[in-house]
Every structure is written in C-alpha cells, then in structure tokens.
Amino acid sequence: MATEKPAPIPAPPPEPAGPSRLARFARSVRNYLILFCVLAIGLAALYLFLATRWTYSSGERAGYVQKFSKKGWVCKTWEGEIAMANLPGAMPEVFPFTVREEAVAAQINTQLGARVVVSYEQHLGLPSCFGETSYWVTSARRVEP
Known about the structure:
With 145 residues, the chain is of the alpha+beta class. It folds into two domains: 33 residues; 86 residues, CATH 2.40.50.140. It is built from two helices and five strands; from the N terminus they run H-E-E-E-H-E-E. Strands 3-2-1-4-5 form a five-stranded antiparallel beta sheet. The radius of gyration is 33 Å and the shape is rod-shaped.
C-alpha cells in the first residue's frame, strides 16, 4: 500500500508591506510641525489677550490736544499728542497717546485745541497694530484753564 502524502497547505499570501521607515519618519515630522505651529499660535494669542487686559500703569494727563488723526496701513487707530505746559511761556512736554475706541475719539475730536484731561492706561509689549504708543486713552474731559 502506498502511503499518500497529505496535500501541502498553501502559504498565505504575503502581507502588503507597510509604509517605509522614511514615510513613517516624514509623517511624524509633519505631525510635530503641526503641533508646534498650533502651540505657537495658541501661546501668541494667549500673550496678546493677557497683554491687552493687563495694565502696566494708569493715570491722567492734562494739556492741550494739538494733534489727532487716524493712522495705520492695516490696523487703523487714532493717534494724538497733548502739549503739557506747566508754566506760561515754557516749552511744553508732548504726551503721545493712542485711542482705540470710536466714542473716546469723538470726545477728543470735539475738544481739539482746548485744555483737556485724559485718563490713560499703559500697555507694554504689544505690536504696533494695537497703536503706535503704549498709552491708551480711555476717556477725556474738557477743563477750564
């Protein structure tokens, strides 16, 4: 009697090769770059939010509004100067300021050339799109000399 050999079991088809090492490396670098960009944008936004909310100093200045105009290529802000003279005939000190609110800008526009007292807040470390100066005027009132 002849012994029959069992039929050989066919080998499973080869599995498709996964991505190469170079492709896996490129994908991980891309993922880290995306993560880095998202974190950088998030941290920049957080910094700008905190810098606009935190006030380094605040106070009031009195003088004559001598210059006031809306400036900027992309971000338009109202920029002005107040001439502060302590003594008649003395050289005035100039206080440059920025106004970000239209209502305050309208107040100052009606008082050009008059003696005014402005309340301001100083915000440090902001880009020029937020204003040319770090002094943001929050209100203005006319005073009699």
